[in-house]
UniProtKB/TrEMBL annotation:
Protein name: Queuine tRNA-ribosyltransferase catalytic subunit 1
Amino acids binding Zn(2+): C303, C305, C308, H333
GO CC terms, sorted: cytosol
Keywords: Cytoplasm, Glycosyltransferase, Membrane, Metal-binding, Transferase, Transmembrane, Transmembrane helix, tRNA processing, Zinc
């Protein structure tokens, strides 16, 4: 085992911990950005340090294809290759194959697939996945698991879960560097509580340095999602890190942390940046929207990141469709947002004010709608429809007949705050979703002050 996990503070099931890895001492809960080929698109490693990234995720499948794990090994491992002094985590490569390659097939031996380089059939076994990850040299390596979509039902889920358990022994046996790299096992079992339970017990028996909850964030309902997380975190050992794979959205991270999870990874913050979307406390801000063209404010006036201190929304709006710089700046801000969220979760748990933090986090997201409803819900709704919906559609339909000056007048007359369609509040109906309220009840976090006035679930 090459890690130390010390819990520094708790609030019911939530925990704030210090995770000491060979290359970095991390504070949890933490979010790991995904660097496909040893890079987070458009950001230099010194910027990632500046943002506060603690662990970066590398895709074994992509790295094994190019530059190849042998070359990375020859050049001193991935840390040295990408000049990243902090911690790294690599996945097993299996998920990428199954999701990217239509011709991937899973047998007891491993994952067979057609090489995207020369079309030849290839096989990734549990042993080979670990050998490749041993050569890459990340602080945390992941066991090869049999991945099935959560939306699939029937005997395939059970087969995949038992195979994942058989493969973990092959992974453990193949692991050559257990004193430098930590092998995490992955809990599978779909949405079936019985299968999840068997898998958790099986993995815990192997006494691994850490555990991941896999097979989620694949299109299942939010209610099924949090229930699986809650079940697994309750059954996993207290003194080992718990990693929810492929998660996620800021709200998901807050909910999972309340339920006792510690680590997350997702392509969302950087992918959505490339589509011109910024993460803000209210939800998301669409920088491509015309309302941004003359908006002199930073993306998020409360954000202390380099981008928000330096550039206006108008400037980024101008870049976002035409220049790679636009998505780089947005990626920077979005990752900063995720790192700040991680830090806020950590400190609020340690300082014993986790419920207040969660309430504030949720309240800001419903703020937009509720602030308008206070001056008469119905009239505001009609006004909103006219300004945000019907009027632009009408203008669009009669583009040739309506004088451009009328359009210009409309643009100038409407105050920026009313151009709601550029800011998408996360809870547009004005209430915290029922699944969040239910999950928080299980987590023992009292958020009734922001659930009850708006939520129909409290009836
Ligand atoms: Zn910012």
């Amino acid at each position: 085992m090459a890690l130390r996990f010390e819990i520094l503070g708790r609030f019911n099931r939530a925990r704030a911990a210090q995770l000491t890895l060979p290359h970095f001492v991390c504070q949890t809960p933490l979010f790991m950005p995904v660097g496909t080929q040893g890079t987070i698109k458009g950001l230099a490693t010194n910027q990632l340090e500046e943002i506060g990234c603690q662990i970066i995720l590398g895709n074994t499948y992509h790295l094994a294809l190019r530059p190849t794990s042998e070359l990375i090994d020859e050049l001193g491992g991935l840390h040295q290759f990408m000049n990243w002094p902090r911690a790294l985590l690599t996945d097993s490569g299996g998920f990428q194959m199954v999701s990217l390659l239509h011709l991937a097939d899973i047998t007891e031996k491993g994952v067979t697939f057609q090489s995207p380089v020369d079309g030849k059939p290839m096989l990734l076994t549990p042993e080979e996945s670990i050998q490749i990850q041993n050569r890459i040299g990340a602080d945390i390596i992941m066991a090869l698991d049999d991945v099935v979509k959560t939306t699939i039902t029937g005997p395939r889920i059970e087969e995949a879960m038992y195979r994942t358990l058989r493969w973990i022994d092959r992974c453990i046996a193949a692991h050559q560097r257990p004193h430098e790299q930590n092998l995490f096992g992955i809990v599978q079992g779909g949405l079936d509580p019985v299968l999840r339970d068997i898998c958790v017990r099986g993995l815990v028996d192997r006494n691994l340095p850490g555990y991941a909850i896999g097979g989620l964030a694949g299109g299942e309902s939010k209610d099924s999602f949090w229930r699986v997380v809650a079940q697994c975190t309750a059954a996993l050992p207290e003194d080992k890190p718990r990693y929810v794979m492929g998660v996620g959205y800021p709200l998901d991270i807050v909910v999972c942390s309340a339920l006792g999870a510690d680590m997350y990874d997702c392509v969302y913050p950087t992918r959505t940046a490339r589509f011109g979307t910024a993460l803000v406390p209210e939800g998301v801000l669409k920088l491509k929207h015309n309302a941004m063209a003359d908006d002199a404010r930073p993306i998020d006036p409360t954000c202390a990141c380099m981008v928000c201190r330096t550039y206006s929304r108008a400037y980024i709006h101008c870049l976002v469709t035409k220049d790679a710089m636009g998505s780089q700046l947005l990626s920077y801000h979005n990752l900063y947002y995720m790192m700040k969220l991680s830090r806020d979760l950590h400190t609020s748990i340690i300082e014993g004010r986790f419920p207040e933090f969660v309430c504030n986090f949720l309240r800001i997201m419903v703020y937009f709608f509720t602030s308008f409803t206070q001056i008469g819900p119905f009239s505001v709704y009609i006004l909103y429809l006219l300004i945000g919906g019907i009027f632009p559609i009408l203008c669009h339909c009669f583009e040739d007949t309506i004088s451009p000056s009328i359009l210009l007048l409309w643009e100038k007359k409407v105050p920026v705050e009313l151009k709601l369609s550029s800011v998408v509040a996360l809870f547009p109906k004005g209430d915290v979703p029922e699944w969040v309220c239910n999950a928080m009840e299980v987590a023992g976090i009292d958020i009734s002050s922001c659930c009850s006035p708006f939520s129909s679930s409290q009836d």
